[in-house]
Specification:
GO biological process, one term: methylation
Shape: globular
Number of strands: 9
Helix content: 40-55%
Largest sheet: 7 strands, mixed
Protein name: Ubiquinone/menaquinone biosynthesis C-methyltransferase UbiE
Function: Methyltransferase required for the conversion of demethylmenaquinol (DMKH2) to menaquinol (MKH2) and the conversion of 2-polyprenyl-6-methoxy-1,4-benzoquinol (DDMQH2) to 2-polyprenyl-3-methyl-6-methoxy-1,4-benzoquinol (DMQH2).
Number of helices: 9
Distance between the termini: 27 Å
Enzyme class: transferase
Keywords: Menaquinone biosynthesis, Methyltransferase, S-adenosyl-L-methionine, Transferase, Ubiquinone biosynthesis
Length: 258
């Protein structure tokens, strides 16, 4: 008896993009892994450089508008830095719990160290996992968040299906991701910052221009707002919507399990 999810992923055989390069799909995870292992210790600095510090405001808005209450169980995917977990922890309270899931062990350990240093220990779990194949039972979370992680996943459709699967009925899925800039006048400035300034900053501050170049390219290859919203609906989420922040540099995507 065959199940739909037994079908091989279309990515197993073909190629996918790693930034602007086409690579065998099986290699992308390893290549992305190398980027994040390389930048783990300087990831906050990198986000500050990439967004001129505004990523902190975006994350505050994202977490402040999540549907979450005391006692809820939350899964934060690509949560290695601990930023989202730290902002959501007061909202789930002592009775709630947050699982930080990240495919990269280097990122997870940085996040755990950082949260522990801030005295945040109880109600936090750390799981190294692949968003395309989550090691959690169906209907086990009230909220699943993913901030700046989806664009690095090889099979985004599989990750969105998994998010829908692990959500309880009534639960909310939220994705914060770089998106498509809407103002025409701003696009050339944004491209100049991304492709000319960023790799230079990466070279100067982190000795790692290639990782920064990849991150700039990965933003351009990520599905724009309407396409990602349609993908979330296709994955089994309902009442999907998106909200542009900073003129579409990033977008907050929301969906529900009904």
């Amino acid at each position: 008896m065959s199940h739909a999810h037994d079908k091989p992923s279309p990515y197993e055989a073909g190629t996918t993009h790693f930034g602007f390069r086409d690579v065998p799909a099986g290699d992308k995870q390893k290549l992305v892994g190398e980027v994040f292992t390389s930048v783990a210790g300087k990831y906050d600095l990198m986000n500050d450089l990439m967004s001129l510090g505004v990523h902190r405001v975006w994350k505050r808005y994202f977490t402040a508008t999540c549907q979450v209450k005391p006692g809820d169980r939350v899964l934060d995917l690509a949560g290695g830095t601990g930023d989202i977990a730290a902002l959501l922890k007061p909202r789930v309270g002592d009775a709630g719990s947050i699982v930080l899931g990240d495919i990269n062990a280097g990122m997870l350990s940085v996040g755990r160290d950082r949260l522990t240093d801030r005295g945040l220990v109880a109600g936090l779990e750390y799981v190294q996992c692949n968003a395309e194949k989550l090691p959690f039972p169906d209907a086990s979370f009230d909220l699943v968040t993913m901030a700046f992680g989806l664009r690095n996943v090889t099979d985004k459709d599989a990750a969105l299906r998994e998010i829908a699967r692990v959500l309880r009925v009534g639960g909310q899925a939220r994705v914060l991701e770089f998106s498509e800039v809407k103002a025409e006048w701003f696009k050339p400035l944004y491209d100049f910052h991304s492709f000319k300034v960023l790799p230079k900053l990466g070279s100067l501050f982190a000795g790692d221009p290639d990782s920064y170049q990849y991150l700039a390219e990965s933003i351009r290859k990520h599905p724009p707002q309407a396409q990602l919203q349609a993908m979330m609906e296709e994955a089994g989420l309902s009442r999907c919507s998106h909200l542009n922040l900073s003129g579409g540099i990033v977008a907050v995507h929301t969906g529900y399990k009904v």
